[in-house]
Amino acid sequence: MANESFLNKAESVNRTFSTIVVSYVFLALLGAVLLSFEPMRTKPIAFIDLFFTTASAVCLTGLISLNPALDLSIYGQGVILGLIQAGGFGYMGLAGLLFLLIGKRMDFKSRVLLKESLDYPNLQGIIKYLKKILLFTLIIEGVGALILTLHFLPDLPFKQALWAGIFHAISAFNNAGFSIFELNLVNYRDDVVVNAIICILIILGGLGFLVLSECYNYRRHHGRLSVHTRIVLIATAVCITLGVVVILLFEWHNPKSVGHLDWFHKFLSTFFISVNLRTAGFNTIDMAGLHDQSLFFCSLLMVIGAAPGGTAGGIKITTVTLLLFYAYCTLKDREVVLFQREIPQSVIKKSFLIFIITMFYIIISAMVLSATDDTQNKHFLRLLFEICSAFGTVGASTGDGGNLSLAATFSHFGKLYVIALMFMGRVGVLVFSMALLGKNKARSIKYPEEGVVL
Q: Which single residue of 9, 86, 89, 204 could bond 93 by disulfide (Cβ 3.0 to 4.6 Å)?
């Protein structure tokens, strides 16, 4: 009976994860079909590039094989924006909002799907949490859109400024990195207001709804912040600061990146890069101009990603923090205790599993894409950078020599492979892997233990 119960539970979990993965693929395919209609485009575009772009939008990545500013009409840009917002909420998040609007209760299965889709720790209070997500999203995106619109007004007509403000606010809060400007935000490299608002929106989106909700409740009731929230807040500040320091150190005298700027704009540009490496992907400088050591370091930051429970991809910042602290505590021969709370071994094991699977996928991806799309071995580091960007759902790229991502130069196979990486990063390596592997089989035989020399 115990084995049968375990089998049924495992099958249920796999079905849930498969549904989540399929829902994102369905949204991307639906978006690609919509973009295939002529009013959405300004020129003919291959379906693979449409699918690549919509997958990037749903996964909140920002890698592009077409330029939304030049190749899409305002209707096509609207489809991209809708996919970004849908990707931020998640398929089940949108379904949950629909249930709320029509006043219908969600059944247990739908609540389980919603819980997994939103990375919420339990089923209790999931509907209340969904309402809070909607409120936070509307307020934060609304304020961001208003400020950006007012700032764009001197340079653009009112309708264009309004559309640009709304688009970039939603894209930034959802950590998508899409822009409707031809050169992304390069023309606003020295603009303090645009840099500040975009970075604030990215950071808030990258913290995750769990952290935003808890900080909001803490401000009102002055309760205790959870270990999760403390880790996210501290680790985010550390990663952003580390990114600024390391990039400044490597790029201070590099004329191809920030070397030609004065000290203030060097700091502004590197701060913008560091924040965007959290999982956004806007750019104000040409990433291809960075030194190799900077590109490698940026790749590591992109793989880490931001916080769970939000719009981030990658390993997640909490996973990396726990692994580093576990290594430290093990060397000191003591229990893993953070903020006077002992971390369960099951959480540590899950962190190790996520890390191992991630490294496996990235190494395999680097070898596969190097063999198929870098046959002359000319840009392996740039290829690795693109892989980490896709997996971390960041969207930063060294480019194709123009205004598209490096992936735009890939073969159809290469583009499909990058699409798979984006889906993997968005839903999480565990969810993706369990959906890929399918059903688990219960094991009724228990074998004797035997040690292995390490």
A: 89
Q: How do residues 334-357 score in pLDDT, each as one tens digit?
A: 888 888 888 898 889 989 999 999
Q: Which amino acid is at 36?
A: S
What H or E segment, with its residue span, contains residue 341? strand 341-342
pTM of the model: 0.90
Burial class (CB in 10 A: 0-12, 13-18, 19+), 331: exposed
The alpha carbon of 412 is separated from its chain's Cα centroid by a whole number of angstroms, namely 23
Q: What percent of the chain is predicted at pLDDT more than 90?
A: 59
Query: Which two structure tokens, joined as six digits, stand for 88?
Result: 């931020």
HSE on the CB side for 405, CA within 13 Å?
33
Please write the tens of the pLDDT for every residue from 19-39. Answer: 778 888 999 999 999 999 999
User: What's the pLDDT at 16?
Assistant: 65
Q: Cα-flanking dihedrals φ and ψ of residue 341, to 5°?
A: -135, 130
Q: What CA–CA distance (Å, rounded) separates 196 from 412? A: 38
Residues 6+ apart with CB under 8 A from 341: 227
> How many beta carbons lie within 10 A of that of residue 194, not counting itself?
21
Largest CA distance in the chain: 75
In whole angstroms, give the CA distance from residue 205 to residue 189.
Answer: 21
How much is the pLDDT for 123? 65
The residues pairing with 342 across neighbouring beta strands, listed in sequence order, are 337
* Model pLDDT, residue 243: 95
